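Journal club side-thread
Mid-discussion, someone asked how the predicted structure for our own chain would compare to the paper's figures. Pasting it here so we can look after the session.
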Amino acid sequence: MMTLDRRNSVYGPDHELFRDTVRSFIAGEITPNFARWEQAGIVDRSFWIKGGEVGLLCPQIPEQYGGPGCSFKFNAIVNEEISYAGYAGPLSDFSVHSDVCAGYMLNFGTEEQKQTWLPRMVKGEIVCAIAMTEPGTGSDLQGVQTRAVLDGDHYVITGQKTFISNGQHCDIVIVVVKNGLHQGSKGISLILVEADRLGFRRGRNLDKLGHLSADTSELFFDDVRVPVANLMARETGGFAALMQELPQERLTLAVASIAAAQRAFDLTCEYVRERKAFGKSIMEFQNTRFKLADLKAELAVGWAFVDQCLEKHERGGLTQHDASIAKLWCSEMLGRLVDQCVQFFGGYGFMREYDICRMYADARVQRIYGGTSEIMRELISRNL
């Protein structure tokens, strides 16, 4: 079985022990169930509990809130290993919960919210989602139309969200809303909505090109009443919170992208050594070797920059600029690389029974969610 080689990187002995735990979890819990989950379009709910039991969920959460108090590098290891194993759907579910939602809760939740929800998120007892995107609003978060109107000691939330990861399984949702108090960025708030609130509805589990086992849904808020205590950050501080947390989300996507690219590359090298054409292995042709050499160089550059970003993030110095570069480079490189790898597989690369075919489909969304490549270029260009 192929394994991801991260020797001489940013990780130490404790990280590698944790990596062994992640690999054991993948072998015991994901691999035997993955085909069934892909067919069903969703993972089992027990997947969360089992992930929590072995410490894969929210490893960065401090001990005072029920977590192990590890650095974000432990989150990165979960992303690297599940992505390298080729299980994009289950990784998407875990990552939104652990790498995205947990960060908002830890950094912008009230003390009561953190005490209530974080220990249960760490254990997998509850699943968290974040609802940003709407049918008419994607990258432009200031354009959301979902509204929260203050009515006494409650907010009344009305609107619709789509493409929401963990939408079917979620127990709580961090909802991006218009507060009606200001125009522009100060008009954005973040409000927690429990899934058992009257007026909250889950739509269909969306049928996607890739990430088939990822839980991705429409959500509806029909005059949902939540107490003012469910507000996160300041009432006018939602957009600032989004901007603060997006670099970590984009670094996470960069990590997942480059690990998937490494997997596609390794699978292809293995295949072209075995596959024969015109009496010799495909690897023996100069065209094959030169193209693979280019891909190996791209991987080396990508890993080096991702490691730089992980170190910066651990020191609290990861900028939106660097995170945008990492996300743009790694997601675009993954698209180029996996397309070339499919070509080496020929007709077999078009068959879903081959991992490379599924990885081709799974790779496409990396250039879209978490901020499209076009938005990444816009953000990078502001520092020219």
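Post-session note: The two ends are 44 Å apart (CA to CA).
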